[in-house]
Amino acid sequence: MHFTALLRSAAFSAAACVMPCSTVFAQQTTTAPGQPAGLSATSLIPTSAADTIEIIITARATDTVRIEKDLLLGERRDAETRWAGFRDQSLRLKATISELKGAISAASAKEKLAKKDKRDADRIAALADKRRIERSLDLVEARYELRDAQAEEARVTRDFLDASVRADDAELEIAERRDQVVPDDPSQRTAFQELTSRWLQALRTRSARSNDVEDQRFKVIEAQIALLKRQRN
Fold first, then answer.
1. Over 90: is that where the pLDDT of 41 sits?
2. Residue 164 contacts residue 100 (beta carbons within 8 Å)
């Protein structure tokens, strides 16, 4: 599944999608006080410490990014559908929980009345009904917690895919502009750096959203384990 592969690589996307190149600007030659004439300040600075500007550019072809974006948009629609489905199920289960709690209260009232009137058969029957309903309530509550966790997972997955689409949009904008940039034009270089900054910010957001998805998936598994345990009891 494309989404799973993208999710696993989100934390490393900035490193995987950039190709650095360095532009070293010449420093002005000056003579520091107390230095012999002809010995410049820059000659005392190691080459590795020279001022540099690193231009970060996309390493992917435009068509590749567009194909990925189309896939992401499809997966985003699927996530929206899952979220709506799980949300509706959780709302119905929540209503069922309220009904079961009401039934438990009614059975308890019957049990107390039968005990007061010393009708042992009715008391035992009411107690059996209450325990049966309590068992159903326990399972329905576990199912509700699972559906609620699944709905939240679908929601954060949708948010991750939204962030991924925005990252692809930013990368496409860079890809369309990079061949037009004249390195010696400060205004164009600045504009390109702004685009790059926007792209990197989008990648950072995408990575954060991927962590949200993994955290919520853990909660879904925990809810599944809890439901299984209750079903076994």
1. no
2. no
